[in-house]
């Protein structure tokens, strides 16, 4: 990025970084899911599953604080959920990166569009907590 | 069923779903949901939560490759993401209040529609005259590399495409699928984009759209790590293998066989939904 003295980042560079960001996000989050899954299975392999009825009130990791608390006490299912959280944030990080790259390109219309998408997702985040 | 056995069965099923989903272009989500609900008796709310996670994984993984090739139109993708994320959140919020039977019936209908769409012969509607004022304002017209030559294209009917995307996003949030079939209709038939661009851009948008609904699902307790873990690992692995073995021309027969299987699954979901009402 520091080589862009005369010319700013062009579309090709942006696409390259964007692609790498997405791939890295998927690989990192899926590795966390795998590790968490292994720990979860070692501790719970004999337990009986019951997913026949939807019981959201029994869900332990439906909030970010809940997930972090579980990760701190090294629970396998919390680590899986943390990996999933990272996966959810991968495309969101992609939007943040796009906003920066459009800012460098001075395409302010698309900076605005990026912020609108972020705002929509943030609203849903808050809406989800409120319910 | 023990957790270990459940995980192994779901892992294998999800691998198959990802493999077939990528070979036929249907996507893994539409296959894993009937598998979980019909074969394993999982409540559709959990199945949807797990599926949406796998949609994020597969679409981000393959988008990475397409974006690098320069085929994806990032501006069109971001512009339409406004519509799909609004739709996705509305759909996800409605989904938690909706009876599982209604979701199953709706899912079955969309499944049949998607299966028909994969069989339909594609007609390229690409145009080059740059007449749409919205497309010019939002700088949506572009070009893509085809065999080393840069092919320019123009976009038509931006408001129509935007509305269709709102609908696609709503279904994605409601049913936990990528709704690629609807996105491609919006971009191929309404906005007149070349196939290569519409397919890859639709895929690029899927991640953000799915993330928007996943946030709602997570807070509603619909994403259970015990199901989501084998589903996303299995679907992602299957889709990766599928994209490697994808040989052009040989998939036609597979598509027909697969469409019949999918239609059968869809009818069963509709039947189950109606009989449960």
Q: What characteristics describe this protein?
A:
heterodimer, A: 131 residues, mainly alpha, 4 helices, 0% strand, elongated, disordered N terminus, B: 277 residues, two-stranded antiparallel sheet, 4% strand, globular
Rounded average pLDDT of chain A: 85
Overall morphology of chain B? globular
Task: Specify the overall morphology of chain A.
Answer: elongated
Count every helix of chain A, treating DSSP H or I runs of 4 or more residues as helices: 4
Q: Work out the helicity level of chain A.
A: over 70%
Which quaternary structure do these chains form? heterodimer
Radius of gyration of chain A: 19 Å
Low-confidence stretches of chain B are none
Beta content of chain B: under 5%
Strand order of the largest sheet of chain B: 1-2
State the order of secondary-structure elements of chain B, H for helix, E for strand. HHHHHHEEHHHHH
| Biggest sheet descriptor of chain A | none
Beta-strand share of residues of chain A: under 5%
Give the number of helices of chain B: 11
Helix-strand makeup class of chain B: mainly alpha
Pfam family, one (chain B): TauE
Transmembrane segments (chain B): 31-57, 78-96, 102-119, 162-186, 227-247, 254-271
Protein name (chain B): Probable membrane transporter protein
Subcellular location (chain B): Cell membrane
């Amino acid at each position: 990025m520091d080589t862009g003295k005369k010319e700013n980042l062009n579309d090709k560079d942006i696409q390259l970084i964007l692609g790498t960001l997405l791939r890295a996000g998927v690989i990192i989050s899926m590795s966390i899911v795998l590790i968490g899954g292994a720990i979860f299975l070692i501790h719970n392999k004999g337990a009986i599953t019951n997913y026949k009825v939807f019981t959201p009130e029994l869900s332990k990791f439906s909030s970010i604080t809940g997930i972090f608390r579980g990760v701190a006490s090294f629970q396998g299912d919390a680590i899986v959920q943390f990996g999933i959280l990272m996966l959810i944030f991968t495309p969101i990080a992609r939007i943040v990166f796009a906003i920066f790259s459009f800012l460098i390109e001075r395409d302010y219309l698309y900076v605005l569009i990026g912020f609108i998408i972020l705002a929509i997702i943030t609203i849903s985040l808050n809406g989800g907590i409120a319910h | 069923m023990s957790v270990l056995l459940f995980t192994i069965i779901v892992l294998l099923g999800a691998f198959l779903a990802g493999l077939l989903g990528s070979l036929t272009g249907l996507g893994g989500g539409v296959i894993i949901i009937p598998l979980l609900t019909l074969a394993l008796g999982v409540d559709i709310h959990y199945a949807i939560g797990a599926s949406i996670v796998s949609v994020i994984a597969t679409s981000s993984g393959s988008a990475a490759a397409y974006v690098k090739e320069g085929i994806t139109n990032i501006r069109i993708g971001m512009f339409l993401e406004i519509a799909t994320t609004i739709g996705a959140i509305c759909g996800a919020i409605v989904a938690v209040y909706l009876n599982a039977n209604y979701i199953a019936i709706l899912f079955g209908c969309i499944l049949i529609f998607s299966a028909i769409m994969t069989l339909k012969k594609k007609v390229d509607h690409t145009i080059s005259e740059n007449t749409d004022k919205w497309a010019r304002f939002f700088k949506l017209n572009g070009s893509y590399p085809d065999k080393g030559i840069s092919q320019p294209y123009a976009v038509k009917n931006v408001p129509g495409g935007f509305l269709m995307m709102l609908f696609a996003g709503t279904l994605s949030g409601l049913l936990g699928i990528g709704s690629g079939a609807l996105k491609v209709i919006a971009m191929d038939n309404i906005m007149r984009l070349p196939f290569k661009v519409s397919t890859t851009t639709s895929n690029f948008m899927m991640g953000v759209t799915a993330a928007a609904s996943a946030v709602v699902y997570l807070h509603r307790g619909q994403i259970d790590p015990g199901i989501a873990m084998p589903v996303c690992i299995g679907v992602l692995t299957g889709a990766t293998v599928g994209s490697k073995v994808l040989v052009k021309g040989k998939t036609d027969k597979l598509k027909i066989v697969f469409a019949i299987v999918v239609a059968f699954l869809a009818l069963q979901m509709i039947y189950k939904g109606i009989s449960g009402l």
